[in-house]
Amino acid sequence: MKVAQKRAELKKREFTCRYDERLDKQERFIREQQMRIEQLKKENLHLRKSFETSYNLNCWKNTKPIRFTIDILKWLLRPHAEKHVLRKGLRSLRCYGLKETLQKGRYRASCSQSFTQLLRQKLFSEGELATQRSDCFPRAIRFSIAVPLYNTPEKLLRAMIESVLAQTYAIWELCMADGSDAAHVGVERVCREYAEKDKRIRYQKLEKNFGISANTNACLEMSTGDYIGLLDHDDLLHPAALHEVMRAICEKNADFVFTDESHFYELPEDVYLPHFKPVYAPDNLLSNNYICHFTIFKRTLLNEAGLFDSACDGSQDHDMVLRLTEKAERIAHIPEILYYWRAHRGSVAEDPGVKSYTVEAGVWAVQKSLARRGIEGKVEPVKPGMTYYRIRYAIKGMPRVSVLIPNYEHMEELKTCLDSVFKKTTWSNYEIVIVENNSTSPELFDYYEKLQKERKNVRVVVWQGRFNYSAVNNFGVSFCTGEYLLLLHNDTKVITPDWMQEMLMFAQREDVGAVGAKLYYPDGTIQHAGVGLGLGDMNIAGHMFCGVNGAVGGYMGRLLYAQDLSAVSAACMLLRRSVWDALGGLDEGYEQDYNDVDLCMRIRQAGRLVVWTPFAELIHVEAKSRGKEDSPEKQRRHTEESVKFRKRWQKELDAGDPYYNPNLTLDRTDFFAADTMRQHDAR
User: pTM of the entire structure?
Assistant: First the structure.
């Protein structure tokens, strides 16, 4: 009797625990929805006020004939797919103005020309595809390709299914859940036709259209594969897609795999602006869903992450990829175009602005990801209508930043730099340590004296040895009292007042080792947007986007959002003092060149990230302080330091920059395509 009572009590306790867990889960969900509703109400109120203000402006009323004319032109052009460029141009003109539209157009045109030759080449020959069909792998993995259907045109539906049937790897199943309405009964007819011919094709007609997330979940629930791939109902897979993914899984034991992709119009041969992606980079992914297509992940990951969330419809893929990568242990990137994303009128591929709710859903997806990680921050679009996101992380406390500036002779440049820091910087807790190195100008020393009297947070220390940038900074750090070190060149000028906060919010993270800023030449072109391995002089390291118009978004928007890179410039670099001390500072074997890149390489070698943010902006007159490499002695030193860097980091140089892409040329810094595809044995 007692045993029975104990069992009953245990069952009752277990039931109570399960009930409490479910209740807590529901309460958390309700709280999240209430928070989202409040956020939407505030945003709606703000938008209504903005609309009312704009609507009553004279400029809005006076430009009504122009807007009407543009709308008529768009209506006339709508049926013609070949006019897509003009349609996008008109929208950009209306949203961003003439100047930015022209700049975007020129950059996009030059990029497209660079990709033409590359995209005409076949990734695999027919013979290679035939060989793939007979390849034997050490594992037998079944892939479930999940495709939610909704009113899919028959021609596009058949093309999608045929692209799966053409796969050189044969162990797969195609799972299609159909939410089409009564006017599109042809979707069911086509699917059942294919399902009768091939048992690997599975089809389910849904009661109604439940939305993209719920429809995709229906696909997942009918799937039985070890790995799951996501495919849109009007897109195409390359015949070798599953074969290459299978190889990545076997070679790297990957539980999450993604590939490069390209948009197209009618046929895959019409591809334009392919997306050559970096490896998995967590800050890039928070800033935008660059992973997107083609995505394959292990079923056990899905079990941990959960199904698609209907609250994120519009950016449900971004939400899912964030959740999966948070759980994944081995993420592999295949730098090959294995997915073709169809662009047509009304699609996000053609213009994200046609579905504005995707931006809101993306903000919500990223905000939820921050909450799961226990990170406090506010997410917002970089620009209205763009699916690139800016995160304003909360800074913990008021840590002191020690700004370290080496100087030699250049009083005017130093004064300009310091005046901009004093005038614009909104972060209050900072000190400046100037390391004087062999100047002789009496006016400069008078300025030093006056500066230290007027500014209690400024100190001048003297390095009497010959110039060695690494040694000078290592010496200067010994006088710094801050928790953070900010290496800054004397020929820089602050643009954004919150530049320190924008760098601090990343540097405070334990997984981040260094943070770099966006630097411009005085003419407004880019001087530094991160450092890429293999670029520049002697194919060692060069500044990305150097010389590009600073107003453009760059290749795939990479000038618009914070991201992980291999290195950043010490012209403006922030890092924690503890990171500096752990690595022993700059290597004094690099007197002037590659010392910052070497430091970043050691930071990454220690398992930390290097982040570049476009929201900390400065002007930088490069090489103003010490001059260019225009003497035999300087050229000899430059060569010696290049050889030293190559010897130390040869393995990494040979492997290529993980945050670039092997399909992009090393001869330019603005992300143009290489002349030829990589050889198969190099993949």
Answer: 0.82
